[in-house]
Amino acid sequence: MAAADDMKGGRSGTAAPPAIELRGISKAFGPVQANWDINLSVPKGTIHGIIGENGAGKSTLMSILYGFYKPDAGEILVNGRPITIADSQTAIRAGIGMVFQHFKLVQNFTVLENVILGVEEGALLRPSLSKARGVLKQLAAEYQLNVDPNATVEDLSVGHQQRVEILKALYRQADILILDEPTGVLTPAEADHLFRILQGLRDEGKTIILITHKLREIMEITDNVSVMRRGEMVASVKTAQTSPEELAELMVGRKVLLNVEKTPARPAALVLEVRDLRLVDDGGVERLRGVSLDIRAGEILGIAGVSGNGQTQLLEILGGYPPKGSRVTGQVRMNGADLPLSGRGCDAGQRRRDGIGHIPEDRQVEGLIMDFAAWENIAFGWQDAPEFNKGWLMDNQAIRRDAEAKMERFDVRPRDAGLAARNFSGGNQQKIVVAREIERNPDLLLIGQPTRGVDIGAIEFIHKQIVALRDAGKAILLVSVELDEILALADRVAVMFDGRIMGERLPGDTTTGELGLLMAGVTDTRDSSANAGGSAHVDELPEGRA
Amino acid sequence: MDKMPKWADVVLTPLISLILAMAISALVILAIGESPREALTTMVEGALGSSYGWGFTLYYATNFIFTGLAVMVAYHAALFNIGGEGQAAMGGLGVALVLLYLPLPHWGLALPAAMVGAAAFGAAWAFIPAILQAKRGSHIVITTIMFNFIAAAALNYVLVNLLRPVGSMDPATARFPEATNLPTLSDIAAGFGMEWGRNTPVNVTFFIALLACLLVWVLVWRTRLGYQIRALGKSEPGAVYAGINPVRITVIAMLISGGLAGLMAINNVMGESERLVLNAVEGAGFIGIAVALMGRNHPLGIFLAALLFGFLYQGGGELALWTSIPRELIVVIQALVILFTGALDNMVRMPLERIFLATRRSKGAAR
Amino acid sequence: MNIRDSLIAIIVLAICLIWALADGPAAQQGIGSALRLMTPLLLACLAGLYSERAGIFDIGLEGKMLMAAFTSASVAFLTGSAWLGLVAGIGGALALSLIHGLASITFKGNQLISGVAINFLASGLTVLIGQNAFGLGGRTPALSGAGRFNPITLPGADAVRDVPVLGPIYSGLISGQTILVYVAFALVPITWWVLYRTRFGLRLRAVGENPASVDTAGISVTRLRYAAVAICGVLTGIAGAYLATGLSAGFVKEMTAGRGFIALAALIFAKWRPWQALFATFLFGLLEAIANLYPNLDLGIVTVPSMFMNALPYILTVVILAGFVGRAVPPRAGGEPYVKER
Fold first, then answer.
1. For residues B356 and B364, what is the distance between their CA atoms, to the nearest angstrom?
2. What are residue A444's phi and psi, to 5 degrees?
3. Does domain A257-355+442-546 have CATH number 3.30.750.24?
4. Helix (H, G, I), strand (E, B), or coil: what is residue A333?
5. What is the pLDDT at residue C230?
6. Which of A208, A385, B1, C161 has the fewest CB atoms in 10 Å of its CB?
7. Which CATH code is given to the segment(s) A1-95+201-254?
8. CB within 8 Å: B344 and C127
9. Number of domains composing chain B
10. In A309-425, which ranges are continuous DSSP H helix?
11. Burial status of residue C119 (CB atoms within 10 A of its CB: 0-12, 13-18, 19 or more)
């Protein structure tokens, strides 16, 4: 492996060219400028973080590096040599490996088959498979990358599937490894393990680019960090010489309003009671393991946790549509009356009539019909509402008037009710959903990821609306993976892990560290946080290599 | 922003597709040593040059309106119903059973009864594929194809073994009672003292087809059911979130689709042949696909496309009569229309979008 | 292979055995007929297997076979060579495959609609050109001699004729078929081997399951899918040529008579696997042979009309699709054009 030797030499020398250098990269998709005049230099043998909000252009930039897109302008240098990356094959040959956010694995292939795909030796599979078996064993020992080579990928956990992706890159002798939002789907323990793997790889001389929007990860593992905002590279600094506050400010372009102005909650009557809620999905996996919670009128209950720990299922059950083929048990009472959890009466329309509004986690897949005009989307979910119907027909004029009024009050831009939902920006799409659900004045509002992929201005606006609804005496269940958002909005915080509520805290009486421990499944946080002096970070790495 | 203005999407792309299909057909005619110009003149003369021609053109168009609407309603629920052929055939059985076994004294009574029979049988034939798609996820394209063949075999059996009059060798039912025969447009014209379209099969069903266009438009764009169908067609998870039951809407959409396809039998079985014969549908179910694609899944477009195909059908018959070009030319044109408007849609659309984007940019730059 | 996977094989062999015990000579005749009738089904089914395993749904098997039948019969008649006819058949089917590829790969169109269009195109063009060329209402003139593929007598067939059980099987069934029948059967193990033992097969299966995995591995999705569609063209070409120059002696209008759809049904029945495809097509071939031999099959309790036998492949496929007897899960990326995600 001559390239690896070069690199080791490069680490000791001073004038070694950077592993990756980008000069003036620009890329537009139609009218959208995804990248504009990007310059970036990644030294060999380092972990380089690229941070930015959703839609800042990080993934586009990395896709250019991997030959998925051709840049409109600019130059790419790998190890000091200019290179045109026309396709993924070129990138692979240049020693670049990529671990995508959504894995590119063939689900019904074995690990081995996935690893050799595209780099088979000769026309027959047998020699390639046996060679790969050997290499995998070696890599597993070297980097803690243990995966059963004969396992079928669909049977593996998400964390293991990610390891297969890393193995694929290493098997292709990648010296530069790009990881796109690698921890989004991982549990804290899995993320921990991943970071140890990455540090091991760096110590062997590999260069790693880590794309993320999580400040904590950047601070913990990277050597250098570059910040992207609206398609531009706004800063590149040494991680040791910056702070999370500074990075956050660079990301959004101004000081983040972390604390939403709000008065203390005045909880009144009990609105929602959930007792021992359990859900077994169609694959027989228990996704909810006895969730119990209460929400009163006039308060916001925040549910924190890494995504995939049962929050989605909780929202879907309360929203009236438990996942297909699942079994739900337990009790849900709304204003003192039992809500059916399956069969007749358990549908989203009935829940709305019962006074439950729902801002779903994914507005593009659930909350909006992207091809429908904005006005049609205002009736979405409320198509049965009497004021939208005239006998057999829908009252399109009434819907349109209602839509225009709501768009006015929520400042949706452009103020064109006839425009299809897909033609609005993420923030304005979300405002349409929020307007629709909040203005119905529900007794209980379910909110999932209210500000995912939403620009800062819209975030503030949406946060204010949520607080205003609370102040109007409504009960709110807020699910978010953004801990900061939960801490800013919630009156009480419950943490979900592996289908359970691990504990409940008051935002003023806890730390991100304590919540982090709960999110990782540790229950006796009061003891351990006392031991750790109240600053325990769950995904904090031990000094040096484990 | 949308890449193209709406009118371009609705009018220009189908028009260009049609022109492409026609151009290639012309090449085919040239290749077999005939004159495209002469072919076109023969077709126009034969289909549109006389009230006789129009009588057949409108008769065929009536069939295609029903099958086109059938494809369209399913399409809006994101279901590709290739089963119009079988559903229309079954609709014919429904018509035959009603007219043979219900003693109805007048066509005015027989028509609604036969319509119920036709729609019910067509819908019933769509029901099993629908419920299998909705509940078991069985691909509706495959199941409806299979149901076309099963319908053909079933009808074959029924006509040969059950409904064939004693002593007849012909696999067909007896003639329907005289009183139930539908008035043709030429009868109606004669009532007003005009002579129009003598000996042509176009009948009152044509007006029912027009009414169906209007009703389907109202259904899809003005009713809650239509809203639910369109929402489901665009996003199933979205529909579930909105309290729309995918199983229910899938089944209802397919029942309406099958019912519309079945209604075609009013025209061909009750209105034209006045008995049920083997193979009565003659591919009209499949032409519905071309009509719906060409008509951009809108009733007005479907009406126009059905007229076009009615013209092609009648013109094709004339072609076979007066030139040495077989009527299968129409099948080729039909194939090309489906190909260009349905499968090669992007080939037509992408260059167009690029042109519109470029003109918009240059306008923006000029400003 | 577990019991469930070999279910079709067991059923097929059971039918053959019962038939042979009930009426030996008729069974020999019927099974021989089934072998010939299943050959185009098997070829088309394997053709569909390559295409659909690569993620390109193909309901245009019927049209391609029809086109191939026509071109092969025409060229075989004009040249007097069945072999040149075969080449022409493959060419005709390939041309339609190219259209399907253009629509569903290059222009990312709807594969089902493209398939429908191809069926009509073949149905129209064959008659249009046939009438123009031969003036026989869409038929081609009858083929004879070297213009057809004729039965081959395998070595030793005559010698073992009188050996009990094995004799009739070898000399009556295995021997005496045309070369294309042997080709079709040989293609089953070959397809299995290609699919599961070669680099091409690995990539083919990958592109049908998750084209993004192939693309990110630096392999061209487009090229792979075109290759699959081309193989599909070649095999439907052989199937069509067999229909017109092996099974019959010339082309007749609409001569495929839904065989492309039965092949599609067999493919679903076989859950997109080669060995199962062999038995599924064998089963459907048997059904057709039985329907031909016994227009009204008297089973003692009930009399089964031939229409039911003809419809049985379709009914069975619906039952399989309904998932009541082992669910048929198509390749995951099937039917969807590959678009790089942002």
1. 12
2. -135, 130
3. no
4. strand
5. 98
6. B1
7. 3.40.50.300
8. no
9. 1
10. 311-319, 348-353, 374-378, 396-409
11. buried
* Residues B233/B75, Cβ–Cβ less than 8 Å: yes
Helices (H) and strands (E) in chain A, counts: 18, 22
Is there a contact between A370 and B234 if contact means CB atoms under 8 Å apart?
yes
Is the pLDDT confidence value at A534 over 60? no
Whether A348 sits inside 8 A of B242 (CB atoms) is: yes
CA distance B255 to chain A (A): 19
> In the prediction, which pLDDT does A43 show?
95
CB-based contact C172:C151 (threshold 8 Å):
no
pTM of this prediction? 0.87
pLDDT digits (tens, 9 = 90+) for A182-201: 887 777 678 888 999 999 99
Q: What is the ipTM metric for this complex?
A: 0.90
All partners of chain A with 3 or more CB pairs under 8 angstroms: B, C
Q: Give C288: exposed, middle or buried? Use CB within 10 Å, 0-12, 13-18, 19+.
A: buried
Q: Where along chain A do the CATH 3.40.50.300 domains lie?
A: 1-95+201-254, 257-355+442-546
Contact assessment for residue C150 and residue C137, using Cβ atoms and an 8 Å cutoff: no
Every domain of chain C and the residues it spans: 40-274
Provide the 10 A C-beta neighbour count for residue A313: 21
Assess contact for C209 and C41: CB atoms under 8 A: no
Each residue's pLDDT tens digit, B283-322: 999 999 999 999 999 999 999 999 999 999 999 999 988 8
Write out pLDDT tens, residues B197-208.
889 999 999 999
Give A520→chain B minimum CA distance, Å. Answer: 30
Tell me which residue in A91, A107, A117 faces C202 most closely, judged by beta carbons: A117
Q: What is the mean pLDDT of residues C31-38?
A: 93
- What spatial distance separates the first Cα and last Cα of chain A, rounded to whole Å? 26
Window 58-77 of C: residues touching B by CB (8 A cutoff) are 59
Q: CB under 8 Å to A85, separation ≥6 — which residues?
A: A64, A65, A66, A67, A76, A91, A94, A96
Q: Are C128 and B330 in contact (CB < 8 Å)?
A: no
Task: Provide the percentage of residues in chain C whose pLDDT is more than 70.
Answer: 97
> Given A366, A392, A423, which is nearest B237 (Cβ)?
A366
User: Residue C222 is encoded by which pair of tokens?
Assistant: 């487009």
Q: Are C177 and C38 in contact (CB under 8 A)?
A: no
Q: What is the pLDDT of residue A1?
A: 35
Distances in Å between the Cα of C311 and the Cα atoms of A163, B126, C42, C262 are 50, 17, 18, 10
In a domain, B32, yes or no: no
Which ranges of chain B have pLDDT less than 70? 1-3, 364-367
Residue C303 β-bridge partners: C298
Q: Give Cβ neighbours of residue C254 (< 8 Å, ≥ 6 apart).
A: C66, C123
Contact B223 A366 (CB under 8 A): no
State the pLDDT at residue A526: 56
DSSP β-bridge partners for residue A225: A49, A237
Instruction: Kindly list the residues from chain C whose CB atom is less than 8 angstroms away from the CB atom of residue B33.
Output: 132
Query: Rounded to a whole number, what is the distance in Å from the CA of A271 to chain B's nearest CA?
Result: 22
From B323's Cα to the closest Cα of chain C, the distance in A is: 11
What pLDDT sits at residue A256? 53
Cβ-Cβ contacts under 8 Å for A436 (sequence gap 6 or more): A377, A378, A380, A381, A382, A406
| Three-state secondary structure readout of A176-192 | EEEEECCCCCCCHHHHH
Q: How far apart are CA A21 and CA A17, in angstroms?
A: 9
Please provide residue A300's backbone torsions phi and psi, each rounded to the nearest 5 degrees: -110, 120
Q: Residue B210's domain spans which residues?
A: 53-292
Nearest to B24 by CA among B326, B342, B293, B334: B334
